[in-house]
Amino acid sequence: MKLLILLATIFGFQAMPPAQAKTGCLNIPTCNLLADLLPSKEGTELLINYTGDPHNFRPTIEDSKRIIDYSSIVLGPVGLESWHQELGTKRAGKKTLKLSIEGLKSEFNSANTHALSHYWLYPDIHCKIRKSMAKYFELDEASCPFRSQMDRLLKLKSKKFPLIVITHSALEPLFEFLDAKYVALKSSHHFDHLNPELLKIIHKNSKGGKKMVWIIEKEIRHPPKIVKNYKKQHHLTLKLNIRGEFGGKPGAVVDQLLNFLEAI
Q1: Helix, strand, coil shares of the chain as percentages rounded to 5?
Q2: How does pLDDT run across 139-185, given as a tens digit for each residue?
Q3: Most buried of 140, 194, 261, 264, CB within 10 angstroms?
Q4: Could you tell me the domains of the chain?
Q5: 114, 115, 118, 137: which is closest to 126 by C-alpha?
Q6: Side-chain half-sphere of 161: how many Cα atoms within 13 Å?
Q7: CA–CA separation, 71 vs 21, rounded Å?
Q8: At what angle do helices 147-156 and 123-136 cross, to 10 degrees?
Q9: Cα–Cα nearest to 71, from 103, 102, 93
């Protein structure tokens, strides 16, 4: 030990620089968008990873403490998960970007603001959220890569779709924009919409080999009798992971959905 102290005294001691702090994020689409914007020497960290229905998740005490203490964090919009903002209020003095869709002008003119808080599903809102991130982190923002998705959606407006069954109304404003006839099995707050009128519509459209389009969110559970319907051969089904994969390309979920709709 004395020898080590002597050598340090003779040659000088240089402490290793601290590792670059990452920016924390609480949902996969936000992490992927942030990672795409930040310089490669920096990075993002998904502070909470979970499987299953996101709306049924609540952070543990340990999760909450980590979020409150983390040096730099991006929180999702207010309507996405209430606990994001609740924990954000406890981060006094720490670097915190609170994403918001409030006041943003959009082609998706919907009263369902909770659905629109899933901003990565709506290309023009996705672009504006990206811009707000770039401004906050003082980054040069190149042209938004999601504008081409908006062009593809505009072309789909002239297409006639069969009845579309969505298992989660987070996609509601998108199909309103397309003027498509649709029904949603669950609200974006994940309350069941299943009622006699909705079941009657589904049953009527499943008769006589009529084609229906089913867009199934993988992480959300649905009644078995309803699930049997989309297994019928004459129906078109897309199983969609609405949050995408951590480390994936921003906009990949909408690209998958557009590819499916264009092929109908």
Answers
A1: 40, 10, 45
A2: 877 789 999 999 999 999 999 999 999 888 889 999 999 999 998 88
A3: 261
A4: 23-136 (3.40.50.1980), 157-262 (3.40.50.1980)
A5: 118
A6: 25
A7: 8
A8: 170
A9: 93
> Is there a contact between 125 and 108 (Cβ–Cβ < 8 Å)?
yes
Distance between CA atoms of 173 and 179, rounded to whole angstroms?
10
- The structure tokens listed for 14 are 């240089």
Q: H or E stretch including 74?
A: strand 72-75
What is the rounded CA–CA span in Å between residue 259 and residue 264?
Answer: 9
Q: What are phi and psi of 95, to 5 degrees?
A: -70, 115
Q: Report the run of H or E that residue 66 belongs to, with start and end.
A: helix 61-69
The per-residue pLDDT of the chain, averaged, comes to 83
Alpha carbon separation from 2 to 6, 10, 16 (Å, rounded): 6, 12, 21
In 3-state terms, what secondary structure has residue 215? Answer: strand
Tens of pLDDT, residues 45-77: 889 877 767 777 888 899 999 999 999 999 988
